[in-house]
Design a protein that fits this description.
Blueprint lengths: L15 H32 L5 H6 L5 H21 L3 H22 L3 H21 L6 H5 L4
């Protein structure tokens, strides 16, 4: 749901049509870029789904042979779903969980603090947005007239 734009509150009222017309397009770009980058990030993991067994077990996720492929699938297939806007909310929730674990990994396990975790925090905020927002009118969810 988009709130109506009040031209009287804008410093430059002539920009109102740009702001109003660009809302869905910009939101779609953010969703597609986030999804595609998750796919790119998960591509190597999907080629070797058991390659992260040691890493996930090092974080306390046992058995690693279960969690490593789930990590790979969440990033790769979840990224595809997010990019096209199909099952947007569940895909975004799964991605947010993975990203919150990476925040812990970088901040605590690797002792990198905020500087090591800031990208994961930003990505988690983006995916959390879509977990609540879902896909917009430029999504497969909208074309199916169904949403989760």
């Amino acid at each position: 749901m988009t709130l109506p734009l009040d031209r009287n509150r804008l410093v430059i009222p002539r920009l109102a049509p740009l702001y109003a017309g660009g809302h869905d397009a910009v939101e779609t770009v953010l969703r597609v870029v986030a999804g595609v980058l998750l796919v790119v990030h998960g591509y190597g993991k999907i080629l070797d789904p058991f390659g992260a067994v040691g890493m996930v077990e090092g974080l306390g996720f046992y058995p690693g042979v279960l969690w490593s492929p789930l990590l790979a699938g969440t990033e790769f297939f979840g990224g595809i779903l997010l990019a096209i806007g199909l099952l947007t909310r569940p895909a975004a929730v799964a991605a947010t969980i993975v990203l919150l674990v990476t925040v812990y990994f970088h901040w605590v396990a690797m002792d990198q603090g905020l500087s090591g975790a800031e990208k994961s925090i930003l990505w988690a905020a983006i995916t959390l947005y879509f977990a609540f927002r879902g896909g917009n009118r430029h999504s497969v969810d909208a074309r199916l007239a169904r949403t989760f």
